[in-house]
Write a structure and sequence with these properties.
Number of helices: 14
Distance between the termini: 39 Å
Number of strands: 0
Strand content: under 5%
Order of helices and strands: HHHHHHHHHHHHHH
Number of domains: 1
Largest sheet: none
Helix content: over 70%
Structural class: mainly alpha
Radius of gyration: 20 Å
Length: about 325
């Protein structure tokens, strides 16, 4: 994708502000960098030729402005030493709105569905770093509230993801589910585990977005009507999605296992509910994968057109990562 000089400057500013977020020593500095980050991202959203891009930009801008106003209001409440519970409530609400988490998640799938894969990649990775830093490192929120929010994220992400045919919406709901897992360990005071989980989410989601960006596919039905040369790419995408969903023994299972090991020390019931509600996400990806494999195997396997060795090499490489970690 070719970028104009102005968009290249905005893209560089996006990375610079993200870097300053990570090294900032105060939450106010992170907030300032988040605003610069947002205004450098909006021109990148507008560079696409997609007809519904403008609608996504408007929804994104309005949501982020409301969240920024809530953050500023909570900062004022903290400075004048008003009720601390109200300050933390507005702060939490603003951060949840910025990352597209329950109960302020509706804008996130709608915006993802309206923008290009390139912008989906930025929105799901770089744009989440600042709010997640504030959420995970700088503040402590009510434990029971965070447990409820984390469970609802997993339920919403898995439940609504079952009914999506747009891959961007599907990955948006998958992201909501992962935010629930990340908040789960945070809710029981294991912040380092939350940071590790977030890093794994970024690393696992990045190749999926890049692969789909390269193939230019936006809808699930289109996966069944591509030529046989793209079969390996399709299978690779779905195995990466299965890994992202946390299916053992793929790489994405490791951060979920780590989270469960720590949460089980706090509550077995909480751990069980997380696993139970995550079945929705796994069922969604498995059903898609089986449909894809059945369709292609019926057409190409018996004709000898399926590259068996390449398929096996991809599968083995994806299974080796968690084994090396063990």
């Amino acid at each position: 994708m070719m970028l104009s000089p102005i968009n290249m400057m905005n893209f560089c500013l996006l990375f610079i502000t993200t870097l300053f977020m990570m090294i900032s020593s105060s939450w106010l500095g992170v907030w300032v960098m988040m605003e610069f980050n947002m205004f450098s991202f909006i021109p990148l959203m507008l560079m696409s030729s997609m007809y519904c891009e403008e609608e996504g930009v408007v929804k994104y801008f309005i949501t982020q402005i409301i969240a920024s106003m809530l953050l500023l209001w909570s900062y004022i409440m903290m400075m004048v030493k008003l009720e601390m519970n109200m300050f933390k409530f507005f702060m939490l609400l603003a951060l949840l709105m910025k990352i597209g988490s329950f109960p302020c998640y509706m804008w996130y799938p709608n915006v993802m569905k309206a923008i290009s894969w390139f912008n989906c990649l930025i929105l799901s990775t770089l744009q989440k770093i600042g709010p997640c830093l504030l959420l995970l490192i700088y503040f402590d929120f009510n434990v029971y509230m965070m447990i409820i929010i984390s469970l609802m994220n997993v339920i919403v992400g898995g439940g609504f993801g079952l009914f999506q045919i747009d891959l961007r919406s599907l990955l948006a709901y998958s992201s909501i589910s992962h935010m629930g897992w990340m908040m789960a360990s945070y809710s029981v005071s294991y912040k380092l585990v939350s940071v590790i989980y977030f890093m794994f989410y970024l690393l696992l989601s990045l190749p999926i977005f890049l692969m789909l960006l390269t193939m230019g596919i936006y809808l699930l039905p289109n996966l069944l009507y591509t030529n046989k040369d793209m079969l390996i790419n399709m299978i690779s995408v779905f195995f990466m999605m299965l890994s992202l969903s946390g299916l053992p023994p793929l790489t994405g299972f490791f951060p979920k296992l780590l989270t469960l090991l720590f949460i089980s020390k706090y509550s077995i019931t909480f751990s069980f509910m997380l696993v139970l509600f995550s079945i929705f996400s796994m069922y969604m990806y498995l059903s898609i994968l089986f449909s894809l494999l059945f369709f292609y195997f019926k057409q190409y396997f018996f004709k000898g057109l399926l590259n068996y060795k390449l398929s096996m090499s991809i599968t083995i490489s994806m299974l080796m990562m968690p084994l090396l970690m063990i």
